[in-house]
Design brief:
Distance between the termini: 39 Å
CATH superfamily: Tetracycline Repressor, domain 2
CATH topology: Tetracycline Repressor, domain 2
Radius of gyration: 18 Å
Length: 190
């Protein structure tokens, strides 16, 4: 969930996250205000408009995702072991935060909101980018565009979590390991 925010702003974030998960990015402002129990005036005290609020929420949730995903990385581990930690942490994050998963999927398909994301959380994103580029440079990972490598790994973790949440698959540790290995096979060089 959202951390380190004052009470009113946190209520707004929670209401927006819930509202977007239930109704999509076009959720009416009145629904957000109703869900949060905060007046429209208080909302506009914190945010200039709904789009800027959704963008800020997305950035915060993305930061939480990156923190959770990269938290257990140890450079002493083999590359595959580090990859496995990132992937499993990613799946677990989305299972534990299904509304964040819905927000990510909707936001990333909203091209009018993407330009607002320039230069956010670069330090965390750079850790992931460096990890992938190191794998390419060492000949461990296929030399493909980063966006495709992300789709083959984090993108799959998002879909796996979605399927686990909707109970279309049984996702025990054995199944996670099988899917992790399939993702790994899709990006490794040999």
């Amino acid at each position: 969930m959202i951390k380190n925010q004052n009470s009113k702003k946190e209520k707004i974030y929670e209401a927006v996250l819930l509202s977007v998960a239930q109704y999509g990015l076009n959720v009416p402002m009145s629904k957000i205000v109703s869900e949060s129990g905060i007046s429209t005036g208080v909302f506009y005290h914190y945010f200039s408009n709904k789009e800027s609020m959704i963008s800020e929420l997305y950035k915060k949730m993305k930061y939480d995702f990156l923190e959770a995903t990269l938290s257990d990385i140890n450079e002493d581990y083999k590359y595959y072991e580090q990859f496995g930690i990132i992937w499993i942490n990613s799946v677990n994050y989305f299972i534990d935060n299904p509304n964040a998963l819905k927000l990510f999927k909707q936001f990333e398909n909203a091209p009018h909101l993407v330009p607002q994301l320039e230069n956010y959380h670069l330090e965390k994103i750079n850790i992931f980018v460096k990890f992938i580029k190191d794998g390419i440079d060492k000949g461990i990972v296929k030399d493909l565009p980063l966006i495709l490598l992300s789709d083959l790994t984090i993108g799959v973790s998002m879909q796996v979590a979605k399927n686990a949440i909707s109970k279309t698959i049984v996702l025990d540790d054995d199944m996670k390991e099988k899917i992790l290995n399939a993702c790994w096979d899709s990006i490794k060089t040999n």
